[in-house]
Write a structure and sequence with these properties.
The complex is a heterotrimer of chains A (about 280), B (about 300) and C (about 325). With about 280 residues, chain A is an alpha/beta fold. Helix content of chain A is about 35%, strand content about 25%. Chain A is built from eleven helices and ten strands. Chain C has a single domain (about 60-320), classed as MetI-like (MetI-like fold). The chains are: A alpha/beta (about 280), B mainly alpha (about 300), C mainly alpha (about 325).
Chain lengths: ~280, ~300, ~325
Amino acid sequence: MSLSSTIERTVRVETKREPLPPRERLQQVFDIQDLTAAYGSKPTLKNVSMEVYENLVTAVIGPSGCGKSTFIRCLNRMNDLVPGFRQAGTIRYHGQDIAAKDVDAVAVRRTIGMVFQRPNPFPKSIRDNVAWGLKVLGMRDDLEGRIERALTQAALWDEVKDRLKASALSLSGGQQQRLCIARAIAVEPDVVLMDEPASALDPIATQAIEQLLHELKSEYSFVIVTHNMQQAARVADMTAFFSISRGAEGERWGELVEYDATEKIFTAPSDKRTEDYVTGRFG
Amino acid sequence: MSAAAPAVFRRANDRLARRRVVNHALELVAWLAAPVGVGILGLVVWSVAKRGASQLNLDLLTKPPVPFAIGTVRQGLANAFAGSLVIVGLATAMTLPVGILVAVYVNEFARRPVRNGLGLALDVLTGIPAIVIGIFVFGLVVVGRGQSGYAGAFALAVLMLPYVARATIEVLALVPDSLREASLGLGVPRWRTTVGIVLPQTIGGIVTGGVLAVARVAGETAPLLFTSSIVGNQIAWNPAHALQTVPVAIFELSEQGDPADTARAWAAAFVLLVFILVTSLGARWLANRSRRKLGRAAR
Amino acid sequence: MSTLDATGAPAHRPFAGRRGARVGDVVLPGMSGLAALVAVVLIGLIAYKVAAGSRLALSTFGLGFLSHVGWDPVHGRFGGASFLFGTAVTSVGALILATPLALAIALFLTELAPRWLRAPVTALVETLAAIPSVVIGLWGIIVLGPVLRDHVMPGLHSALGFIPLFGPAGPGPGVFTAIVVLTIMILPIVSSIARELFLGVPPELKEAALGLGTTRWEMVRGVVLPYTRGGIAAAVILGLGRAVGEAIAVAQVIGGVDNLVSWNLFAGGNTLAAKIALEFQSSTSDLETSSLFYLALILLVFSLVVNVVARSVVRRVARRQGLVLR
């Protein structure tokens, strides 16, 4: 029984996406070198090196505790908010090392946006959720137009266009998450990071989010953390697999094991740990 | 392009520089606010300490004031300290049983609407200004009968009541129902359960609440102004008559222009402040310790 | 088949129970219920006694008392207007000074201060609340008053004297000193409530704002402050109640000027509570005493209203949590 047929039986890979152009022709968005992170004295990530490419969906998968969330939050300096967090290594965004201390995190987050695991709309109206960021960041021209465009791109406009003044919290979970996506893309980032965006949602809402990724990746680059392998197989062009390594005294940290085109990861992984994970043998 | 915000992150009209300036300015304001707040405390405490400690001598505590005669040192304020001791002590004795009983009723016997109503009543009581309570006790007890230490103590007791009751309610609520059920399950009557099992668990909290209430009320002047302020100079202990108290003494002395009077006011203020700070900080520390002992996080 | 009866004792006790056990089950709820009743009755009693004491003044002056300026024992004509004005000016003034400072301190403690600094500073600010008002008043007379009178007030007067608030300084301390003293007294109340409110803002909302690329202040202005708006209103109202009711410290510093209604903050003045404190001993007639009771009645009504309003604001905020905040 060949390896690929085993994997195919456990993971049905959608192949309706276009094949990836060769690596040399892809534009780099992130160039991450030797990223190492720790909370206080507890190491979380070690020596992560990979490139993220433009206008693709890049998935980060792995068992819980492998540092996927920490990794993605390094990409927009959100970990700055955690006291005791330290990192080393470089994260180059179009050549600029955003991990450098003297780079302003506020500016970084403008161009590298984030959607969180649980929908967290502001307790404002639907319209104001999108409008607030635009106003603060100085994008007041054609405000209503921008709001409509963002909500349309997030596939939410038709459902809310008649009740923009209603509270955002009156929306369903899936709608709230799409609102959060609209809020994030309204300020025109280049990259949208998503930390398990559909894990708190039901399957129908999840499907809607995944559909969005397909449609929007022509305008944005997505990096999405997911614990759901099938989801990664469905939406991602490139997939990075992280796993947990253990140290001599029992410390655990995450490492990048393998990073490649999604099809390769799921049909012919190079590393045994990857193969074990994607075939469900562990994790 | 500043290193801080490389060009790749900049957009037109993002006014990033200005927004950052605004942010820094307001952060500075907030950073300055805290020292202002703490600084005021420091200023007041330091003033009192500097001016009061230097005037402090044993005479202040042990000798009564003598009538003013030119060239005579005023001696002490022993009558005020004695009177405060008696009145605050009496007030505590009046308030503790009532406060504890109110808390017992609220927590053990009352149904929800009554409980909410009593909570509201306690809140209202907390909000009544001390001077209004003073005038109330004046109208109730002093009119016709004259001032007395009892009247003063009663006024203070009314002030203390909501604090004692509130603290006891909180600490009663922390006692787990399983304890009550265990006792009732043995056939122990309800009242015995409450008095013998539940209340002993709360002693620490009640003591803390009582100490905090004492600290709160030891410096109260307004209720005593009408109930126990017309006093002589001798040291007196009998609450049937009006007794001098430390806060009233400070109040009266502070209105006089004579520096000797002011000096005694500072000294008395110093003693009062030390007492209050030690008791409230001490009670706070006790509370933290017993909370840790019970191993429970505060509600 | 043992069930518990209404008092929690087993209903069917085959073994001999002592009578005392049953009596106790009546006595304890009875006594504690009585105590609870006392607490409630106390409020009614206070209201009754204060109202009764003011009956003479009420019948003599009616509501005109509230608009009449002047306190004239010689002619027996008393009015509360100057004290109402003084109370309003000092309390509102104290709120204007204290609220931004308290919010700034609370924001500092929740957003900016390093972890190790938070607990000590919090404790210090709250200790300010423990200082008795008579001590603050003493400090106000001896230390603060002269500094304000000799340096701050003339300075403000020469710089901003065209505003009627900053008129020529009077001889003693005055309304301005009272405002500063009251600010000090209500600062810890507003600041500690605000601090708890800010701590209660869900971190995911703050992250959502920061994730868009806003600065910390923009996040506070757009998320934290709107979220806590109702609670802050309640805190401010409670601070107002405290300022209005403060008799002693204000009495010590305000200068006791009765017959004046003036916008000049640097002159003397008087407030409802301070007047009662200052005058009570030297009240010359029953009418005067009754008028003082009238002042106390106004204070009482006001403090009851403040309490009820603050509570209902808190209740409405709790209910509205999760609906639109503008």
